[in-house]
Amino acid sequence: MAGPRIIFMGTPEFAVPSLGALIMNGYDIVAVVSSPDKPAGRGLKMRRSAVSKFASDNLIRLLQPYKLSEPSFINDIQDLKPDIMVVVAFRKLPAEVWKIPAIGTFNLHASLLPQYKGAAPINHAIINGEKSSGITSFLLDETIDTGKIIFQQEIAIAPDDSAGNLHDKMMREGAKLVVNTVKALFSGKVKTIDQSTLIKDKDKLKKAPKINSKDCYIDWDRKNSDVYNFIRGLFPHPGARTIFRKGSVDHMVKIGKCKCMKEHQHLGPGEIDSDGKNYLMIGTAGCAIDIERLQLEGRKFMSVQEFLRGFDIKNTLVIKGPPA
User: Fold this and answer.
1) C-alpha distances in angstroms, 131 versus 25, 28, 127, 224?
2) Could you give the angle at which helices 50-57 and 16-24 cross, rounded to 10 degrees?
3) Across the strands, what pairs with 80?
C-alpha cells in the first residue's frame, strides 16, 4: 500500500528537521506551505524562511500564501488531496484548511500539553525554573493547542540550559516524534487522549504567551534563582535586558551567558561589583549574577572582558526594571 500524501506547514529553523526526517523516511511530501518572503536587514533584502529555503533546495512544491483563507490557496490544498497535514511552528489554520486531509492534521508543540499552551513554551518553562518539559503531537481543532493528544515525550532541562539549548533538544526529538506520529496515524492504530482528562486543577495550568520586548527587562529585586532563570529563559532570543545608566545616558544591554552566584551577599539588588577588566557582577535579592556574555544595543554579544575594555563601568547605575 502506498504511503500517505503529506502537506508540511512550517516557517522557522525549528521545523526544518521534522520536514527533513519525513523526507529521509521516504514519505511523499506533495507540498510545503511556509510564510511569504519578507524584506529584512538594513538593505531590506527579501529573506526566505528556513522552511521555504529547504523546500526549494529539495525541489518540493512550495506555497506561500499571504492569507490562509484565500480561496485560491484552499483550492490548491484540496487539489493536492492530502491524507495528512503536518504543522510545525506555523500560523493558526482556519478550519476550512485543517479539515481537508482525509486522515487529519496534527501539530507539534514544544511542551507537555495541556501545560504551557501558547507561543513561547520553551522560554516560559525555563523562566519558571522547570526541571523538565517535553513535546506533544496533537490533532488540530477549533481552538489553539487544545486538540486531542497523539504522542508526548518528556525532555529534561539541565540547570544551565538556555532557551536556545532546549530549543535544539526539542527540535531534534520533535523530528522523531513527527515521523512516529505520521506512521501511527496512517496505520490507524492511534488512541488519542482528550486534554481535559489530564487537567486535575485548572489553577495549576501554566501558560506560555508571546513575549514582547517590554516583558524582557530584568527585575533585580527578585531573588537570585529567579533572575538567573529569567536570563537563561530569554537567551539567545529575545534576550533579557537591563539599563546601564551612565550620567545622563541610558544604555540598553542584553545579558546572555551568566552564573548564579552563592556568595557576594553584600551586593544589594542592582548594585555592581567589577574590577573594570575581568568580571562584572550585579546583585539580586540575596546574592549576585556573574555575567559572562552581554550585548550593547546595536552590537554583537561579547565576553564581559571585551565589554569592559570598551565601557567604563565606574559610576554606572543599573535600572531595576523596564525604563520609565
Assistant:
1) 32, 38, 11, 17
2) 30
3) none
Strand order in the sheet with 28-33: 62-63, 28-33, 5-10, 84-88, 104-109, 132-139, 149-156
The cell 493547542 sits on which residue? 145
User: What is the average pLDDT value for the chain, to the nearest integer?
Assistant: 94
pTM of structure: 0.94
Scanning the structure block, which residue is given the C-alpha cell 513527527?
178
Helices H / strands E in the chain, number of each = 8, 18
Cβ-in-10-Å burial (0-12, 13-18, 19+) of 19 comes to: buried
What residues contact residue 225 under an 8 Å CB cut-off, 6+ apart?
Answer: 129, 260
> Low-confidence residues of the chain, pLDDT below 70?
1, 41-44, 202-203, 263-265
Domains along the chain with CATH numbers: 5-204 (3.40.50.170), 213-319 (3.10.25.10)
- Is there a contact between 88 and 108 (Cβ–Cβ < 8 Å)? yes
Q: In 60-199, where do the E strands start and end?
A: 62-63, 84-88, 104-109, 132-139, 149-156
**Rounded CA gap, 69 and 97, in Å?**
8
- The size of the chain, in residues, is 324
The sign of the CA dihedral 89, 141, 118, 168 is negative
Q: Provide the pLDDT for residue 203.
A: 67
- DSSP string of 59-70, one letter each residue: T--EE--S-TT-
Lookup result for grid cell 492569507: 67
Cβ neighbourhood burial of 131 (10 Å; 0-12, 13-18, 19+): exposed
